[in-house]
Design goal:
alpha+beta, six-stranded antiparallel β-sheet, globular, D-amino Acid Aminotransferase, Chain A, domain 1
Length: 281
């Protein structure tokens, strides 16, 4: 079942057409979240990011779009898919009303909620080999639009195809200054000699929810020094550890980049703290 503007529809229902602005122009935003036993992980952070992103894109935010209202609609959708007592991956999409060309005829929005099952209720660290490479065909713009979860993800699509064709599990993206920005599906963290760093938002990386949560966690730890700082490609092979973060996987360790193989000691230590934060959110 899919929730379209508050109405539960069967998945094969035709409720979008060729005039949809998300399809035509990428005029859409989305949030991907975990829900476990009816509880959304980090819901307030996802909600606030969505509201801020809608304002940046000059979308009209409906009066009923409170945290409580949207959470209830998400719960209805998850329950309709028989997942309320287990764990689900939820995607909440908003797109501007159809009409117009580049210039819309209205800033009002429609929304769509989807839910599919997840295997594990909490974040689990994968021990599988996970090799990455730089994707250098196209670059991320170092601007505010790149930090939003919009439907304009063609670089991530083409990069994912490149990764599959070359037997990599993921790729790392660069910005126009040739600095490493993020992975195809999440933020990047680098560990070297007790220092953990991640690229700053101004470099063009996604303003990730798990990125934010890990920064909060790291700020309270005395074992590591944390920095938001640029990462050059030359630093990757010198790192002790690299890992990727997103709202579904939590923390994904990178095991190999070119000739360098990495440990996952820091990622393991942080995973328990992230799960604890999720339970309290």
């Amino acid at each position: 079942m899919v929730n379209y503007n508050g109405n539960l529809l069967k998945e094969n229902t035709q409720f979008l057409d060729h005039q949809n602005r998300g399809l035509r122009y990428g005029d859409a935003l989305f949030e991907t979240m975990r829900m476990v036993n009816g509880k959304l992980f980090f819901w307030e952070d996802h909600y606030l990011r969505l509201m801020a992103s809608m304002r940046i894109l000059r979308m009209e935010i409906p009066m009923e779009f409170t945290m409580e209202f949207l959470e209830s609609k998400i719960s209805e959708t998850v329950e309709a898919n028989n997942l309320i007592a287990s764990q689900a991956r939820v995607r909440f999409s908003v797109f501007r009303e159809k009409g117009g060309f580049y210039l819309p005829t209205s800033n009002d929005i429609n929304y769509c909620i989807e839910a599919v099952p997840l295997k594990n209720p909490f974040y689990i660290l994968s021990e599988e080999p996970y090799e990455v490479e730089l994707f250098k065909d196209f670059y991320v713009n170092a601007d505010m639009l790149s930090t939003l979860k919009t439907n304009n993800k063609i670089i991530n699509v083409v990069g994912s195809i490149f990764a599959k064709e070359n037997d990599y599990q993921n790729c790392l993206l660069l910005n126009g200054s040739k600095q490493v920005v993020e992975a195809l599906n999440g933020n990047l963290f680098l560990v070297k000699d007790g220092v953990i760093k991640t690229p700053p938002i101004k470099e063009g990386c996604l303003n990730g929810i798990i990125r934010k949560k890990l920064i909060d966690i790291l700020s309270k730890l005395e074992d590591y020094k944390f920095e938001e700082a640029s990462i050059s490609p030359f630093e990757l092979q010198k790192a002790d550890e690299l890992f990727i973060t997103n709202s579904i996987a939590g923390i994904q360790p990178i095991t190999k980049y070119r000739k360098k193989e990495f440990v996952n000691t820091t990622a393991k230590g942080l995973l328990g703290k992230l799960n604890a934060a999720a339970r309290l959110s």
